[in-house]
Amino acid sequence: MKDISLHPCFNVEAKHTQARVHLPIAPKCNIQCNYCNRKYDCSNESRPGVTSAVLSPMQSVHYLKALSKKMDNISVVGIAGPGDPFANPVETITTLEILKNEFPDMLFCLSTNGLDLEPYIDRIAELGVTHVTLTINSLNVETLAKIYKWVRFNRRVYRGKEGASILLEQQLSCIPKLKAKGITVKINTVVCPGVNDTEIEQLAQKVAELGADTMNSLPLYPTEDTAFESLEEPSKEVMKDIKAMIGQYIKPMAHCARCRADAAGLLGKDNDEAMNMIGQFSSMVINRGESRIRVGVATQEGLLVNLHLGEATKLYIFEQSHNGYHFIETRNTPAEGGGSERWETLAKNTLVDCQAILVGGVGETPMKILQENGIKVIQMSGLIDTGLDAVYLNIPLKTLCKSEFQGCGTSCRGNSMGCG
Predict the structure, then answer these.
(1) Model confidence over 216-273: pLDDT tens digits?
(2) Which of 256, 270, 220, 261 is nearest to 48 (CA)?
């Protein structure tokens, strides 16, 4: 059982001794806040949305391993951007899966706007996420329409009150679902003078009723080149009064600091060496053979290799053990469309720990991209174990097992909606 009292953001006593690390592996965002400008390489700013670099899942794990050798008091690993973790679900889930194996005793936390969180609640609970922060700024859709320029949900962009309504509905529905999984829920609210500052009491009462554990009010940080750049930052006196008001309904958080997406160290005392290190790891070329001990399989039922890669909405992941082959989990494949980017995501994120993939068929483009990323592509049909024998034991595939699929290959010039 993990000791959640070691989380410095949720326990003021741990703040002085326990360090946290944010891994910036989520560059995309699914909303546009009118107070946010996601700049990179801005070392003088300490606020969400800012990072010196963006890491791949494997780069982030190597970075954390190196940082742990220099900082022996890291108790928490968080993903907070610089975009939103669930606008980057493949990167987020892949990182958590690797971290669970490499750092089983650490606490894992996520900070999200909640728009795309719901489908992943079961999975993050399985992976050991103990704390989730949701940024909710009002219960009034007219107010939210002033705070958010647009919301992108289910591949469609919504604006105004329509987008605000969708966002709010998704956010509020996630609170009880997270609590049902035993996850600690914190609500972040950005206090924007003249916009939402008179509505925070109503919000505090509502999230408390839904089961949230604590609420953190953050003063607006006027940021250049945003719609809210001319608004004034709330005074300390105003923020003190707001925290007192929140306390009537829910435990207020009094010691939270604005944290960058690549923050590392004690709260309010980020480690300068970590910031220098992260730039080095962002350009690190991961040894393609290192940590690639697994095999992905395109299968309909988990017994036979019987799906073309373009048909597979999920892949079964296996690895070798002393008792034979062990099924690890299923992983969703990137959504259809997107051209080569889809297959780059598959290779670099979904299959980041895989040395090979077994498929019933594959197009020229994904074949090339997977191979360039060090993943062996085996086209076959038949039992999964037969393909795994070919990978792990170098047993040649019998002719009967080799795929005779002819519908795709070098002549395929698809539109990326299937396998192209």
Answers:
(1) 998 988 888 888 888 989 998 999 999 999 999 999 987 566 677 777 656 656 656 6
(2) 261
Maximum pairwise Cα distance, the chain: 77
Q: Check if the beta carbon of residue 107 is closer than 8 Å to that of residue 75.
A: yes
Residue ranges covered by each domain of the chain: 4-282, 294-401
What tokens appear for 73 in the block? 């008091």
pLDDT range class, residue 103, cuts 50, 70, 90: confident
At 375 the pLDDT is: 92
DSSP 281-335: HHT----TTTT--EEEE--SSSSEE--BGGG-SEEEEEEEETTEEEEEEEEEPPP
> Which burial class, exposed, middle or buried, applies to 325 when counting CB atoms under 10 A from its CB (0-12, 13-18, 19+)?
middle
By DSSP bridging, strand 269-270 and strand 264-266 are antiparallel
What pLDDT, on a 0 to 100 scale, did the predictor assign at position 124? Answer: 95
Residue 165 has a pLDDT of: 97
CA distance 64 to 24: 11
User: What is the CB neighbour count within 10 angstroms for residue 319?
Assistant: 16
Question: 304 - beta bridge partners?
Answer: 383
Q: Please name which of 20, 131, 125 lies closest in space to residue 77, comparing C-alpha atoms.
A: 20
What is the reported pLDDT for 11? 61
Distance of CA 270 to the CA centre of its chain: 22
Q: Give the CA angle between residues 354, 356, 357 to the nearest 5°.
A: 105
Convert 33-86 into a string of H (helix), E (strand) and C (coil).
ECCCCCCECCCCCCCCCCECCCCCHHHHHHHHHHHHHHCCCEEEEEECCECCCC
What CATH code is assigned to 4-282?
3.20.20.70
The reported pLDDT for the residue numbered 43 is 43
Name the average pLDDT for the chain. 83
CB 378 within 8 A of CB 388: no
Lowest-confidence pick of 71-75, 108-112, 120-124, 221-225: 71-75
The pairing of strands 304-305 and 324-332 is: unpaired
User: Tokens 């928490």 belong to which residue?
Assistant: 76
Tokens 């962002």 -> residue: 282
* Collapsed DSSP state (helix, strand, coil) of residue 364: helix
**Which CATH code of 3.30.420.130, 3.90.1150.10, 2.60.40.1120, 3.40.50.11740 fits the domain covering 294-401?**
3.30.420.130
